[in-house]
Amino acid sequence: MKLRLETKSVEPDGAFSDLLHEDGSLICYCIEKTFDDGLPKIPAGEHRCTKTFFNRGGYHTFEIHVEGHTRLLFHSANVESQLDGCIAVGLQMGVLDGHKAVLQSKAAFQIFWMMVHDLEEFVLEVVGR
């Protein structure tokens, strides 16, 4: 399986993307933290994602493999300040405490997980950055 993370904007509140199924349909919206260079840790290109356990969250997820980094995960979060390189998923875009955010993150993660839970790995194609 191949999923596509299509970056729509990079703003002071983070990098915002659409996560698309291999058929092009929208799965959810995503937010990533940006760093001093103005970009997230996950660069454009294809990245292998493998099943793992998110210890702090207490649930299974997938790790995105990026050279020079470890533990870049898909997980629930709403705003950039809750992230350190990972991808947070949401069902809606909105604002929390004055910051652009993804909303309904736990529900979005459940949808994401239902799509991938039977897999041991998949490919994430990152574009638009």
Architecture blueprint of SSEs:
Layout: E1 2-11, E2 14-20, E3 26-32, E4 45-54, E5 59-64, E6 72-76, E7 87-90, E8 92-96, E9 99-103, H1 105-116, E10 121-127
Parallel strand pairs: 1-10, 6-7
Antiparallel strand pairs: 1-2, 2-3, 3-7, 4-5, 4-10, 5-6, 8-9
Explained architecture:
There is one protein chain. This protein has 1 helix and 10 strands, in the order E-E-E-E-E-E-E-E-E-H-E. It is mainly beta and 129 residues long. The protein has one domain. A hairpin with a 2-residue loop joins strand 8 (92-96) and strand 9. The protein is globular and about 40 Å long. It starts with a strand and ends with a strand. The model has no long low-confidence stretch (mean pLDDT 97).
Q: How many β-strand stretches?
A: 10
- Radius of gyration from the alpha-carbon trace, in angstroms: 13 Å
* Overall pLDDT score: 97
Proportion of helical residues: under 10%
What is the overall shape? Answer: globular
Largest sheet geometry: 8 strands, mixed, barrel
Key terms for this structure?
1 helix, 129 residues, two-stranded antiparallel ribbon, 8-stranded mixed barrel, mainly beta
